[in-house]
Specification:
- The protein is mostly helical.
- The protein has seven helices and no strands.
- The chain has helices at 3-10, 12-29, 47-61, 67-72, 77-81, 88-105, 109-125.
- The two termini are 27 Å apart.
- The structure holds protoporphyrin IX containing FE.
- Protoporphyrin IX containing FE binds at residues 38, 41-43, 46, 50, 53-54, 57, 72, 77, 80-81, 84, 86, 90-91, 94, 119, 122-123, 126.
- Protoporphyrin IX containing FE (HEM) binds at residues 38, 41-43, 46, 50, 53-54, 57, 72, 77, 80-81, 84, 86, 90-91, 94, 119, 122-123, 126.
């Protein structure tokens, strides 16, 4: 990745803040309980906790405070996803719900494009079965 692109990724937090990432993950998780593919995979009794973990992770990853690291330690995302069956269908559905959430929150175009590219490749990296 280009150094300049990395710098810009780190500026997303300054552009959207806690509030923006809060709205994004709320829009994402709102769709989970009713989703036929992802609903059964996520912890039904701790969706609020899951929402907070993703929010804090994204805030840390895109240039904000490191609450995620303080609470959860090193992300090791692939390892943390190992207990969940992430196949192509789950990966694509995750991306679909996140794309819808990104449309809903109306971030600046540059931030939305960078986040979309990040989610697209990271969601693929989380796959742990065909
Ligand atoms: C861009 C892609 C993704 C990112 C950045 C991401 C990020 C995260 C993070 C930060 C956590 C919390 C880890 C922890 O501290 O315990 C998490 C949990 C989880 N992820 Fe993902 N994930 C991605 C893709 C996926 C996909 C494709 C699935 C498909 C099933 C998935 C399913 C889950 C589930 C079920 C959990 C457990 C919920 C919880 O209790 O936190 N993730 N993810």
């Amino acid at each position: 990745m280009l150094a300049s692109a990395w710098v810009t990724e780190q500026e997303i937090y300054a552009a959207v803040g806690d509030e923006g990432f809060g709205r994004l993950v709320a829009a994402f998780y709102r769709q989970i309980p009713e989703d036929d593919v992802l609903g059964p995979i996520y912890p039904r009794d701790d969706l609020a906790g899951a929402e907070e973990r993703l929010r804090n992770f994204l805030i840390f990853r895109f240039g904000g405070p490191e609450r995620y690291l303080e609470e959860r330690g090193h992300p090791r995302l692939r390892m943390r996803h190992a207990p969940f069956p992430v196949d192509q269908v789950a990966r694509d559905r995750w991306m679909e719900l996140m794309t819808r959430a990104l449309e809903e929150v109306s971030f600046p175009a540059e931030a939305r494009e960078m986040l979309t590219a990040y989610f697209d490749s990271t969601a693929t990296a989380m796959m742990n079965r065909p």
